[in-house]
Q: What sequence folds into this?
């Protein structure tokens, strides 16, 4: 098994160099990572094909998350470039004041330090995570799933070369490429060297990580996302937003899982929404009032309301007003991403003020909450925690802060 302690120690050593590196140096490294990725494109696709061929037992949804397509590869390269172009989050003065004594006090953004990211399947997380960590001046340890080991090795090698050529320590990006199940358990013990762990994957993985370490963990367990379609919603907008929320990528955490439709608009809005969803191959499961409008819909069970399908399945419930919609979200939602489709500013305001989720959207697809569409560039995940970050975790969210006080012989009275 790979020497986990040595790996963590090397990340800790790289942390000091990264904290001292200039924003320009980190920007140069990220731009070089994009170039290196383009240069090894064929190698990336070949390794990914081997990963796919070696795991024929994977579910279709899991295989989709594992596969690198032309579109996903372009996304990976673009995210590196976008991260390079973002403003430097390190060194920002978050607040500052001069006290009556003349003491100058500032709260300044600094890197968290060493971040370990544990994830399943999706190789684009490898590049996204490295981009976010390096942009914010952190060292990162990447632990992808065994199913993507070949792809991740190619990606990590290319990124380490780029970091080194930019004059930064190669160990700022490290891949724990062991397939031994004990490797993660050993990594979770390294609280002396690792400052933060971010798990990305299924609820089982996240729960195991959170319960198996003393290191702070940034997490979300489920993405049970809702769209509430108010009775006054524009039909064309409702159809477009719901279909995009559900179908743009069904296997990701901010895909729509439950549709709530106002009773007053159900007969007008449900048929065109259902037709558009079925055209995309989505299975619909509805409450009794939904079945009255859509008799060919499957009946929903109590379990459906609390299920993150990550598949072309959608549960539908007819509700009687915004209060019932918000109560349903509070009961069954996961605090990830929820939206409202309405023409009423008053309804939109009530929804955004009351729904307690990391992202709350008005007349927009839930799929926009991934971070790039919020102007964050690459993100390393979405947090439903309240401390230290909430929602999309970009470079600014991988910073903490320190207080700096400058005096002229100032003393405490």
A:
């Amino acid at each position: 098994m790979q020497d986990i302690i040595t790996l963590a120690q090397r990340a800790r050593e790289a942390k000091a160099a990264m904290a001292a590196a200039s924003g320009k140096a980190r920007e140069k490294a990220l731009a070089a990572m994009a170039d290196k990725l383009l240069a090894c494109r064929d190698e990336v696709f070949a390794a990914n094909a081997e990963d796919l061929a070696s795991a024929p037992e994977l579910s279709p949804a899991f295989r989709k998350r594992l596969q690198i397509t032309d579109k996903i590869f372009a996304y990976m390269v673009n995210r590196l470039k976008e991260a390079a172009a973002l403003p430097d989050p390190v060194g920002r003065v978050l607040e500052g004041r001069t006290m009556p004594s003349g003491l100058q006090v500032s709260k300044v953004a600094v890197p968290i330090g060493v971040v370990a990211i544990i994830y399943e399947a999706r190789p684009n997380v490898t590049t996204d995570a490295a981009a976010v960590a390096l942009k914010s001046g952190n060292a990162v340890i990447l632990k992808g799933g065994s199913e993507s080991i070949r792809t991740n090795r190619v990606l990590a090698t290319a990124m380490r070369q780029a970091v080194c050529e930019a004059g930064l320590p190669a160990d700022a990006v490290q891949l724990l490429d062991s397939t031994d199940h004990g490797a993660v358990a050993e990594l979770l013990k390294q609280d002396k060297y690792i400052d933060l762990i971010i798990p990305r994957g299924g609820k089982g993985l996240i729960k195991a990580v959170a319960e198996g370490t003393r290191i702070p963990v940034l997490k979300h367990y489920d993405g049970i996302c809702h769209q509430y379609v108010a009775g006054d919603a524009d039909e064309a907008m409702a159809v477009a937003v719901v279909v995009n929320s559900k179908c743009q990528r069904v296997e990701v955490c901010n895909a729509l899982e439950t549709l709530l439709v106002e009773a007053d608009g159900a007969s007008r809005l449900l048929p065109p929404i259902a037709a558009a969803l079925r055209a995309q191959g989505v299975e619909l499961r509805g409450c009794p009032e939904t079945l009255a409008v859509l008799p060919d819909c499957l009946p929903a069970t109590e379990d459906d309301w609390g299920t993150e399908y990550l598949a072309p399945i959608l549960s539908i419930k007819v509700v009687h007003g915004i209060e019932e919609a918000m109560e349903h979200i509070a009961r069954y939602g996961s605090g990830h991403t929820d939206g409202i489709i309405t023409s009423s500013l008053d309804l939109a305001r009530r929804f955004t003020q009351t729904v307690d989720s990391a992202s709350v959207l008005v007349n927009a697809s839930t799929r926009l909450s991934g971070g790039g569409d919020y102007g964050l560039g690459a993100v390393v995940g979405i947090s439903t925690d309240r401390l230290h970050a909430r929602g999309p975790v970009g470079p600014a969210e991988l910073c903490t802060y320190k207080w700096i006080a400058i005096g002229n012989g100032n003393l405490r009275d």
Summary: The chain has a mean pLDDT of 95. The CA atoms of residues 179 and 388 lie 31 Å apart.
